[in-house]
Amino acid sequence: MGNMQVAPFDAVVLMSFGGPEKPEDVLPFLQNVTRGRGIPDERLEEVGEHYYMFGGKSPINEQNQALEQAVQEEFAARGIDTPLLWGNRNWEPYLTEVVGNHARRHGSRRFLAIDTSAYSSYSSCRQYREDFAGTVAALQEEGLEVVIDKVRQYYNHPGFAHAQLDCVRKGLKEFKQLVGGLDRNRHKILYVTHSIPTAMQESSQKFTAGYQRQHEELMAWIGGELAGEEQLDAELVYCSRSGSMHTPWLEPDINDRMRELAETGTEGVLVVPLGFVSDHMEVKFDLDTEAADTARELGMAFLRAGSVGTSPSFVSGLVDLVLERAAQVRGEQPESSTIAGSKALGPGSGACSLNCCEGTTRKNTVPNWSAGMPAS
Predict the structure, then answer these.
(1) Do 298 and 315 lie in a common domain?
(2) Is 138 in the same domain as 171?
(3) 356 domain residue, yes or no
(4) pLDDT confidence of 364, banded at 50, 70, 90?
(5) Is 14 helix (H, G, I), strand (E, B) or coil?
């Protein structure tokens, strides 16, 4: 079983948030997401309305299946025969069931996880590690001793970065055609990511550059790569905040910022989903529906660039990260590839500090969608 390139791991697991497959799944799914937070079903039904707009089905599961297939093909191209699994946090296939079934059938004990989140924060990294710990504990009760490690957060890995760069280049080309020519005085790029509470942002800065700064670092690199090409001024905005309005979250919200820009002469925006790896519900509703509606209300030209999805450079980069982490665990010192001017997270537990991004678990907040990242 397995491959020396991935040793000592017996299997690799693609780990994601999960999402409902049909209308009757929506409420149970949201109950899973919010378990222990005291959110009434009436509030969950309100959130569920956004899923019902899309037939009660989140696109995230199909996207994860496509990514799993693409990574499997990259494994095959490199001669890696280590099993590749897929498990979710909040809906089938559940991580604990996937890992447990594979351990029972094949005797696998060491698993390496790829999570569908590129940045560092409690929701986008540490909470996945808590899921792994929960799976380990649950299986231990059954007498199965397993270990789950993970690759590092990959916002600054060349594979992810170049995939994002390709999305921006293609988006600029399409936006130019839409508006009849780019004009820095009338058009802007809005890079969008999931908002998080400011307390969570502060926690993410203790051992890393921090959630917000990681996005800004990637934006700056993209800008540098576009130097000499026709481009636009860019800024970072947020979507998908939830919970009490009294709790500070990262701002500005994309819709609020578009209204401000319209008042100062901006006539069109290229929206880049920098914080997301695929077109899951947050992209399909928050950007393609809600932000697009705001643009129409303002008479503003609007184009949403693609997400990295199954981009060959992104997929290849994920496999590079698997091999990097495996080599680190074997006691080797592989080069940790990063974009210029950036440093990779170190080879500690989960490829980051044991205390990284801790202490920000949110109570009484209801997530908007089935996110790949963060788990809002």
Answers:
(1) no
(2) no
(3) no
(4) very low
(5) strand
Rounded CA separation 66/12 (Å): 16
Separation of alpha carbons 350 and 341, rounded Å: 23
Residue 110, beta-bridge partner list: 147
Question: What does the pLDDT read at residue 375?
Answer: 33
8 A C-beta contact, residue 272 and residue 191:
yes
Does 358 map to a domain? no
Burial profile 137-156: b = 16 or more Cβ within 10 angstroms, e = fewer? ebbeeeebebebbbbbbbbb
Closest to 124 in 3D by CA, of 356, 364, 368: 356
Residue 235 in contact with residue 271, Cβ under 8 Å? no
The pLDDT tens digits for 128-158 are 889 999 999 999 999 999 999 999 999 999 9
CA gap 105, 330 in Å, rounded: 25
Q: Can the peptide bond before residue 252 be classed as cis, meaning omega within 30 degrees of 0?
A: yes
In a domain, 86, yes or no: yes
Do both 174 and 206 map to the same domain? yes
212, 250 contact by CB (below 8 A): yes
- Residue written as token pair 């600054």: 156
Alpha helices in 116-210 (DSSP H): 127-141, 158-179, 198-204
Q: Which residues, 6+ apart, have CB-to-CB distance to 18 below 8 Å? A: 29, 32, 60, 61, 88, 89, 90, 91, 92, 94, 370
Longest dimension (CA), the chain: 65
Q: pLDDT tens digits, residue range 214-229?
A: 999 999 999 999 999 9
pLDDT of residue 41: 85
Q: Compute, in degrees rounded to 10, the torsion defined by CA atoms 207, 149, 277, 357.
A: -30
Read off the pLDDT of each residue in 62-89 and give the average, rounded to a whole number. 96
Q: Is 210 left (phi over 0), alpha (psi -120 to 50) or beta?
A: left
Put the strands of the sheet holding 147-150 in their side by side order. Answer: 84-88, 11-16, 110-115, 147-150
Residue 359 lies in a domain: no
Rg (CA), the chain: 20
- Say if CB 130 and CB 148 are below 8 A apart: no
